[in-house]
Structures are given as structure tokens and as C-alpha cells.
């Protein structure tokens, strides 16, 4: 199989019925970057910036952050990189950030909530991103956006910092795209204006599933109980796909399940055109997509949903076996 994946490395992920899916990789450390070449990923769909913060005992200086972002962009050699702003709290605790004890950390003070309440940290990171980009295209996204207003507030900070850099005579990105992670069900019901204005939306399936099913992603007792191929979850993904399509907004999926071939096929069949996954999954997912007709997969999903199936796993597994995917 490894040889097959290597032979596909420079080929696009196009299904038998001609649908092109962009396969990206998730990263968070400089050491992940060589995988961009070797995996055949088309870019970094999720760069987890918090890792640099987690491995240290103090906030990295602006110059250190900027140096890392610059090296990441150098290593990507023009392929797109989506930098996710600091996603801390819950399972990712910074020893040097004072925080109260929380009864439910997953539902607590985390991600963009911290960034909006302690704006200096986010501003410093944005300045670092702008300096690291040094005039190159820049993509930024915010984690755990639950309300449109949170996205707009964070986006305004980015736009203000761009103006500050410009006023200081420093280079600003040749292209700037600012997106939101959809990780709470509430954001799927945000006003149309949010979907129109966001430059892109990325489903963080790990968190979205946790909140959709009210099942802690860290808790072994419930973690595996609910499935990405659950009918209710796929109906929800369908709603998000439709809202993005109506607004003309690019949608990607960057939770772990985007890297599992059957789940990836289901997501692509539902209309998600960009999947971001760990590098080792790019080959297996690409080979599955190239062997499949997504319109067939979609028909299987629609028929099973219409019959009231609780999960799509059986129907899709049967279809994949018969279709030789
Ligand atoms: C997610 O929640 O799906 C995600 C991609 O982010 P993380 O796993 O870092 O929370
Ligand atoms: Mg998440």
C-alpha cells in the first residue's frame, strides 16, 4: 500500500465522477513540515500555533513567534498554510497563564474566549504572524467561535494590526484570508452575514462532535460512543455545507476523522471540498477518493437517511466493498 500511496503523491484527489477534493495536512511543529513534500498534501489546512506556547515556560517573544511563522511559510514554499490562533484552555493548559479552576474546562475559558478577554496575547500573535509573513499571503483562523460577534471582534483586531503595520511602513500580506473554526453547533445557526463575510470556515470535528453529542472527547467512557457517520451528525454537516454553499464560502473539515477513508468519502460526498488530516492519512484518503464515485456515495447516504438508518457506517461499508473502493 505504501508504494501505491507514493505513486499517487503528485496526483490530484479526483473522484471517478470528476470531483476534485483538496487534501491538506494538519501540523503544529516545525518537524511536521517535511511531511508536506512527502505526503503530497496541498498545503497545511490547520497549523496549531499553541504548540510553541505549550512547550515553554513563558509566552514566546514576538520575534520568536514571527521567526517560527516565517520558517513555516518558507518550508511550505508557496503552498497555503492556515495558522490557527492560540487554542488553549480545556486540555491544553499554559502553566504561565493565570486561570481559575473550572468545573467544566471543555465548556470553559478557552480558545477565542481567552483571546478576546486577554487581547494583548492575540494582538501580539497577530503582529507576529504579519511580521512572519513579510508580505506573503497569510491565512488566519480563530478556534471555537461560538457566535458571529466573536469572529467579527477578532477579525477587527487583525485588520487593525494590518493598518498599524502599514502605518509603520512594514510589509503587509499580499493576500489576507481570515476564517473561523466551526466547533460549536451554535455557529451553524449564525446569521447569513457571518457566512458571507467569513473568508472561509473549517469544521473542527473533534470539538464539534463533542458538543453535538454532549460527549467529552477526553472521556474514555463516552468518547467512542458517537460516530462521525451517525445519521444525526451527517445531517448536521449537510446543513453546514448548504449554508456555506449559499454564501459562497469555502468549507473545510480538519478534525481527525477527515483522515479516515470512509469518513472522508462521506464528508466529500456531503459536499466538503477540502479535508485536512495528519500527513500519514493523505495517501489512504486520496486512494479512496480516486477509486470512488462520490455521487454514488451520496445516493447511498441519502437512501439510508430516508430509510431512517441510525448510522451510515454499514451502508457505506457495503457500498465501498461492492464498488471496490
Ligand atoms: C478539532 O477540534 O477538530 C480540531 C481540529 O482542533 P483540536 O483537535 O486542536 O481541538
Ligand atoms: Mg478544536
UniProtKB/TrEMBL annotation:
Q: Where in the cell is it found?
A: Cytoplasm
Stretches assigned to coiled coil? none
The record's family statement is: Belongs to the PEP-utilizing enzyme family.
Indicate what this protein is called per its UniProt record.
Answer: phosphoenolpyruvate--protein phosphotransferase
Query: What lineage is this protein's organism placed in?
Result: Bacteria, Pseudomonadati, Pseudomonadota, Alphaproteobacteria, Rhodobacterales
Which residues of the whole protein are included? 436 to 760 of 764
Amino acid at each position: 500500500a505504501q508504494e501505491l500511496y507514493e505513486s499517487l503523491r503528485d496526483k490530484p484527489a479526483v473522484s471517478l465522477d470528476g470531483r476534485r477534493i483538496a487534501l491538506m495536512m494538519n501540523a503544529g511543529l516545525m518537524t511536521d513540515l517535511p511531511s508536506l513534500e512527502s505526503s503530497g498534501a496541498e498545503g497545511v489546512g490547520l497549523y496549531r500555533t499553541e504548540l510553541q506556547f505549550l512547550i515553554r515556560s513563558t509566552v514566546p517573544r514576538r520575534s520568536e513567534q514571527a521567526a517560527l511563522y516565517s520558517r513555516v511559510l518558507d518550508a511550505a514554499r508557496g503552498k497555503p498554510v492556515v495558522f490557527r490562533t492560540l487554542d488553549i484552555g480545556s486540555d491544553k493548559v499554559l502553566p504561565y497563564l493565570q486561570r481559575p479552576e473550572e468545573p467544566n474546562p471543555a465548556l470553559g475559558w478557552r480558545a477565542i474566549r481567552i483571546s478576546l478577554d486577554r487581547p494583548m496575547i492575540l494582538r501580539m500573535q497577530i503582529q507576529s504572524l504579519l511580521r512572519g509573513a513579510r508580505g506573503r499571503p497569510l491565512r488566519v483562523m480563530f478556534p471555537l467561535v461560538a457566535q458571529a460577534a466573536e469572529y467579527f471582534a477578532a477579525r477587527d483586531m487583525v485588520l487593525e494590526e494590518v493598518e498599524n503595520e502599514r502605518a509603520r511602513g512594514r510589509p503587509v500580506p499580499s493576500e489576507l484570508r481570515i476564517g473561523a473554526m466551526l466547533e460549536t453547533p451554535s455557529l451553524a445557526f449564525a446569521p447569513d452575514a457571518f457566512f458571507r463575510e467569513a473568508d472561509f470556515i473549517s469544521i473542527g470535528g473533534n470539538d464539534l462532535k463533542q458538543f453535538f453529542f454532549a460527549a467529552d472527547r477526553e472521556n474514555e467512557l463516552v468518547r467512542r460512543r458517537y460516530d462521525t457517520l451517525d445519521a444525526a451528525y451527517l445531517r448536521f454537516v449537510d446543513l453546514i455545507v448548504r449554508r456555506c454553499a449559499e454564501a459562497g464560502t469555502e468549507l473545510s473539515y480538519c478534525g481527525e476523522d477527515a483522515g479516515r477513508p470512509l469518513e472522508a468519502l462521506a464528508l466529500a460526498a456531503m459536499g466538503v471540498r477540502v479535508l485536512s488530516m495528519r500527513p500519514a492519512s493523505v495517501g489512504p484518503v486520496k486512494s479512496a477518493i480516486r477509486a470512488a464515485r462520490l455521487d454514488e456515495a451520496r445516493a447511498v447516504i441519502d437512501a439510508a437517511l430516508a430509510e431512517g438508518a441510525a448510522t451510515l457506517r454499514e451502508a457505506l461499508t457495503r457500498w465501498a466493498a461492492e464498488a471496490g473502493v
